[in-house]
Each structure stands twice: as C-alpha cells, then as structure tokens.
Amino acid sequence: MSRTKVVPLPVMGRHNINAYLLLGHRPVIVDAGTPGSGRRIYEQVAAHGVDPGDVSLIVITHGHIDHFGSAAELHRLTGAPVAGHIADLGPYRTGRAREPYRPTGPMGRLMARNKNLHVQVEPFEPDVLVTGETGLEDFGIAARIMPTPGHTAGSISVLTDQGDLVAGDLIAGSLFGLVRGRPANPPFHDDPLHNLASLRNMLALNPTRLHVGHGTPLEPDRVRRWADREHRRLTRLEAAGRLPARTENSTA
Questions:
Q1: Which pLDDT value is given to residue 251?
Q2: Sequence-separated (6 or more) residues with CB below 8 Å from residue 89
Q3: d(CA 55, CA 66)
Q4: Alpha-carbon span 143 to 151, nearest angstrom
Q5: How far apart are CA 216 and CA 124, in angstroms?
Q6: Please, what is the average pLDDT of the chain?
Q7: Which one, of 170, 198, 183, 161, lies nearest residue 6 by Cα?
Q8: What angle is formed at CA 115 by the lines to CA 244 and CA 173, rounded to 5 degrees?
Q9: Mean pLDDT throughout 216-239?
Q10: What is the spatial distance between Cα 26 and Cα 178, in angstroms, rounded to a whole number?
Q11: Number of structural domains, the chain?
Q12: Would residue 31 be called left, alpha or beta, if left means φ above 0 and alpha means ψ between -120 and 50 degrees?
C-alpha cells in the first residue's frame, strides 16, 4: 500500500484548531472541527486535489465539540462513514460534550466559562464503532486507530505505518500552537494521569512526528522530555491530593 501523507486542514486560525487529511490509496479525514466548519474542511480537501466524494472514512478523535462539531455535516457533504470510540458514544449521540470540563491549568479554567463550549451541536451515530486497535487498510490507508484514553474516555489517535501519529488532544502545542514545536497540555483532560499513560504508550512505539489538534507538529524527543516533567508534576499533585478523582467515564 502507498505511503500515507498527513496534511493539516486548519479549522480555526493557521493551526489553532486542526483537522487532518490522510492521503494513501484513498483519503481519510481525521476530526471535523467546530460546529459549522464542515464546508471549510470540504473545500480544503478539494483544494488539495482530492474529490471529497472519494473520502473513505471520517475518524473523530474524541467527544469535544471542537473535534466532532461538524461530523454530521461532513458526513452529509462527503457521504463517508464516521468512526468514533464507543466510550464517547454519549457525546456523539447527544451532541453535548461530557461535563464538567476538567481544566489542566489557567487557560482551561478561563475557557471553561466560554459558552461556546457548552452548546449542543448536531449529534451523529458512528458508522464504525471503535472498541480497540483498528486497522484502516480497508479504508485505503496504511494506518491504524489506537485507543488513547485519558483526555476523554473514548479518545483515539491514528498511527500510520510510517510513524506519523495524528494525536487529537493527547498532547497539544503551547498556547494553542502559538509557540511552535513546544509541547503542552490542552486546556482540559478528564484524567491527566491516564492521558499521560496513553501518551507514553504511544511514544514507546517510536512515532516520527506527532500531529496535534491544536498547534504545529511536535518532535517525539521533545514530547518525551515534556512527558517526564509532567509525570513528576502529576505525581506531586497526586501525593498532595490535588488531582481530581478519577471517574468511571474517564477510565472506561
């Protein structure tokens, strides 16, 4: 099968919120952006010389509205089936992200008050229900879906055979990518320790680059150093009883 190319599709700003186009034997879209961005993603796919009607699958990395907000619209525009993890089925079916949001720092605490995060968007029913590692060869790309829970219970990433990891909100660029190449937490994690474990599991697979939902691509060695520091920070917080208790949904 041909090499899979990862192409960013900016949804907001130059790289504040990203969807991705994976190009192989057939094209696959990863994430659907905020509500009302389906047409923008559709047009960007076409601008890359791809017939949007040829898209074989839309993969949604998790149940936050800046990633699944236009899933139903993009499904209608392209006719492609949508894949999502069973543990985030509640948000997909209701059109509402699971709340409360659990901030990872000051930005998250500020953003949690933003009414746009609490709106109801058009729901959808995944055509491909992910329950574990899932190969994507049948959809025309040399890649596999990898469950990476922690940010949300049903968070997933896509790892290509060449080592590109399309990571959703497993990790982010600092200040939504304004600081290029610098790893950081996204504004929210349901379970920071579980998310960090998922991140380290993916790093153990030696990805060549991490393509994130917020920011520019990240180099694995820099993410590893960040993850070591984050492990020490979270261990201190946990020992001090300052981490939020894990919920059933965050560890599903």
A1: 38
A2: 126, 129, 154
A3: 21
A4: 22
A5: 29
A6: 94
A7: 161
A8: 60
A9: 96
A10: 32
A11: 1
A12: left
Taking Cα atoms as reference points, which of 134, 161, 153 lies closest to residue 145?
134
pLDDT greater at residue 8 or residue 175: 8
For residues 46 and 57, give the distance between their C-alpha atoms in angstroms, rounded to a whole number. 15
Contact 202, 157 (CB under 8 A): yes
CA dist., res. 29 & res. 9, Å (int): 9
Reported as a single tens digit per residue, the pLDDT across 130-144 is 999 999 999 999 999
CA geometry: angle at 15 spanning 12 and 20, to 5°?
90
What is the distance between the alpha carbons of residues 33 and 48, in angstroms, rounded to a whole number? 18
DSSP letter for each residue of 165-206:
EE-TTSSEEHHHHTEEEEEE--SB-S-HHHHHHHHHHHHTT-
Tokens 């520091």 map to which residue?
Answer: 229
CA distance 238 to 235: 5
Q: What are the tokens at 229?
A: 């520091």
Name the region of 154 (left: φ>0; alpha: ψ -120 to 50; beta: rest). alpha
Distance CA 237, CA 185 (A): 15
- Contact status, residue 227 vs residue 199, Cβ threshold 8 Å: yes
Residues for the chain: how many in total? 252
Sheet with 82-85, strands from edge to edge, namely 5-12, 17-23, 27-30, 57-59, 82-85, 128-130
Domain with residue 197: its CATH number is 3.60.15.10
Domain coverage including residue 116: 5-251
